[in-house]
Predict the structure.
Amino acid sequence: MTCTIRVQGAVRRRAPTQYLAALCAAVLPLAAAAGPTIEFGQGSTLNFTYGLQIWNETRSFTSPTNPASSTDTFLRRNRLALTGQHNDMIGFYAQLEAGVDGRGGNNDRSLFWRDAYVTFDYSDELRFIVGRVKNTFSRENLEACLEPLTLDRAEVLSYTPFAGTRDMGVVVWGNLMDARLQYRLMVADGREGPYVPERKPRVTGRVHVSLWDPEFSYGYQGTYLGTQRVLTIGAAYDTQPDVAYANYLSRADPQDYKAWTVDAFMELPTASGVFTASAAVFEYDTGGAFAGSPDPGLSVNSDLEGYYVKGGYMLPGKIGPGRLQFFARHEKLDYGVKTGLAEYFDNTWNGIGFNYYIDGQRVKVTGQFNRIKYDTQHPVDNSLRDYRQATLALQLIF
């Protein structure tokens, strides 16, 4: 429960307000509004939530040029979120981020706005988001950063090659058929900058069908910790015309970007424990521009195929003060990029780990071990050779 503070009369009580609850149900996962809430007059609210992830990571290489193993402790995520509601129709969400602070000796990271958007909720069937918001393409990107099943998302596969995890634009979305069916349409900036042949908007569409308990929020969770019985199947399509030249030196042969994904998620609570499974397949296509004569800003994942499969099992009772969950993850990435005759980027990830929930997602400890194998070993670049990685993480949400 959140702590609510009324500005008028300075009344404190231990219950979320009606409007904040409605906003959180529609846009945010449950733990994302864990902190104190201030009420302003009739129906206006402001919630503060702080989220912190501290990682200790050991890896069997240090850098592309240094093969020695390394150990690093850093702040993977360090966030302050503000969730506001003007009335029962208009709200906002803004999140300050200073993440990855201390990694590789990069200390004192600058603050920036990870999210900043306004919500207009005309009805459950018709909602709008305007501003800087999560790309509505892949399920895993839409899963809450602080409520995953595994340690984190895929490092590359679940992120679209342009605009990162967020984009600036407008989203129209809603729930139909008692939230059994959800639709989303996003028009956003997409790829921008001096290398783009012609400035055109990016368009993303996504739908999902919930066969058991509905997933009615804009964001998903990687695990519901056995509180819901979920079976959801989703699909999305992402496109932007004229994003890159296949021959940048001659400013010739502009290529369109298009991508698709299909995903499934299941969580089944039983008397013998909670079973979770999730999988997705992806294809990103920029017409092979990276394999031609690309511009300096075009990323290697602009033409990428791959998939992931992950599963978890949470024991039925407490172990000490908390709940214990085991998980495993497998993902395969095929870039199709050749250096000479070799394809050095293609790789496979396999990982196993655990979550120990002391207070749900609000206080937890996670450990994960990964083995990354490359189909072809690069002769000199250590980041494109087989390696191992072990991470121990502590998470706090207030």
Notes: The CA atoms of residues 39 and 45 lie 4 Å apart. The two ends are 11 Å apart (CA to CA). The chain has two helices and 19 strands.
